[in-house]
């Protein structure tokens, strides 16, 4: 179902700015910014809007969505796929996005090991048997560090035009604040979590006593999960069906890292080469009035190193130089540039990544460019 559309229908008089669903998603984004989870699962992910927003959070490396309705997920799951720009400029972090078709009342090992689990406007869609199993699955089996649950606050309903019983025809119940807090506190006690209550969607002035339109419980696990407890209930087989999976290009993948490093090395080397040749040309032009002197002064600059001396300079110096028609740019020089240094970490790694991808000196310590073309142009 489209929760967002339903909400907009009945909030014609009470206008939430931003819209209520955006406030809920922003609450999750702010929480991600605070706690920096690496693995996040959204239960009841519906049209994947929250997952799409979270994929831009640089701390997240694994995103998973689960919903009982596969068709709703499939309608917009293409938004979770990498874009051409993701391949042209791979991120330094890895990112895998997976969507599963299944029920939150069932346990599946693919949902183990998450730092944050979100259940946005989910529990009110569960029937009594599913709601009874829900805490054991989420808090007992999945046992993430943080669980966020949002649900309608029924005390707000009289302020919403057109709402007679529930806000959505699929809702099985809607709790007031006391009911939600009683359920949340008991669940937290049973599974060793603490819980704090808040919400989004402020009431109109003078009606503050009804509370937020959406009530939220933030559960934080009190104790780190031990490996024994994590494995104690692990089922032997998967029950969810994977309907989508995307692995984003990442610089943690050697292939993408090599492409990025080679491109950066060529870019930097071209700049250094151009600067060096421009310097030599300016030196050459100082002697335009005396062709004899120009030749005697300029030519040694272009051939200022014998072959043996050139090797020693490449090995021991970071200074680029010209020998005949070849410009030598030591990899040590290129490695000193911050981006290359950050990408490679060590000079040895840089040498390994560019080997066979760019023209190198015989000892592999410098990038080489032939200047014959430049000389013809000049």
User: What proportion of the residues is helical, as a percent range?
Assistant: 40-55%
Mean pLDDT: 87
Strand order of the largest sheet: 6-7-5-4-1-2-3-8
Q: Which blocks of ≥5 consecutive residues have pLDDT under 50? A: 1-12, 294-316
Radius of gyration: 31 Å
Separation, N- and C-terminal Cα atoms: 69 Å
SS strand fraction? 15-25%
H/E topology pattern: HHEHEHHEEHEHEEHEHHHEEHHHEH
Main sheet properties: 8 strands, mixed
> How many strand elements?
11
Number of helices: 15
Organism: Mycteria americana
Cofactor: Mg(2+)
GO molecular function: metal ion binding; RNA binding; small RNA 2'-O-methyltransferase activity
Protein name: Small RNA 2'-O-methyltransferase
Structure description:
The strands form two sheets. Strands 6-7-5-4-1-2-3-8 form an eight-stranded mixed sheet, with helices on both faces. A three-stranded antiparallel sheet has the order 9-10-11, sandwiched between helices. The longest helix is centred in the C-terminal third of the chain and has 32 residues, at 254-285. With 378 residues, it is an alpha/beta fold. Helix 9 runs antiparallel to helix 10 (291-302). Helices cover 42% and strands 17% of the residues. It has 15 helices and eleven strands. The protein is elongated and about 90 Å long.
Compact summary:
Helix content is 42%, strand content 17%. The protein is of the alpha/beta class and 378 residues long.
Defining traits:
three-stranded antiparallel sheet, single chain, alpha/beta, 378 residues, 15 helices, eight-stranded mixed sheet
């Amino acid at each position: 179902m489209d929760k967002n559309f339903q909400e907009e229908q009945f909030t014609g008089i009470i206008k939430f700015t931003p819209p209520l669903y955006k406030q809920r998603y922003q609450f999750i984004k702010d929480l991600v910014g605070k706690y920096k989870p690496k693995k996040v699962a959204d239960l009841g992910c519906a049209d994947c809007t929250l997952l799409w927003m979270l994929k831009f959070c640089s701390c997240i490396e694994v995103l998973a969505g689960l919903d009982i309705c596969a068709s709703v997920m499939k309608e917009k799951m293409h938004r979770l796929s990498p874009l051409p720009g993701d391949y042209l400029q791979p991120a330094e972090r890895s990112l895998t996005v997976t969507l599963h078709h299944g029920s939150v009342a069932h346990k599946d090992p693919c949902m183990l090991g998450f730092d944050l689990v979100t259940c946005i406007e989910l529990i009110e869609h569960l029937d009594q048997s599913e709601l009874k199993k829900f805490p054991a699955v989420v808090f007992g089996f999945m046992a993430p560090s943080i669980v966020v649950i949002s649900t309608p606050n029924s005390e707000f309903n009289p302020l919403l035009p057109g709402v007679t019983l529930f806000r959505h025809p699929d809702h099985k119940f809607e709790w007031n604040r006391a009911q939600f807090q009683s359920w949340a506190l008991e669940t937290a006690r049973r599974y060793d979590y603490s819980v704090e209550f808040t919400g989004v969607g402020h009431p109109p002035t003078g009606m503050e006593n009804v509370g937020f339109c959406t009530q939220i419980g933030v559960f934080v696990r009190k104790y780190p999960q031990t490996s024994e407890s994590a494995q104690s209930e692990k089922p032997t087989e998967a029950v969810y069906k994977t309907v989508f999976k995307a692995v984003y290009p990442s610089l943690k993948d050697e292939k993408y890292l090599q492409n990025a490093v080679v491109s950066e090395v060529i870019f930097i080397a071209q700049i250094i080469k151009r600067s060096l040749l421009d310097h030599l040309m300016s030196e050459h032009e100082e002697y335009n009035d005396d062709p004899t002197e120009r030749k005697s002064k300029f030519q040694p600059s272009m051939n200022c190193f014998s072959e043996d001396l050139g090797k020693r300079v490449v090995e021991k110096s970071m200074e680029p130089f010209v020998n005949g028609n070849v410009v030598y740019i030591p990899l040590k020089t290129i490695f000193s540039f911050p981006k290359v240094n950050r990408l490679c970490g060590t000079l040895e790694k840089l040498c390994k990544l560019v080997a066979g991808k760019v023209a190198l000196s015989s000892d592999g310590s410098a990038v080489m460019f032939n200047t014959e073309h430049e000389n013809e142009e000049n």
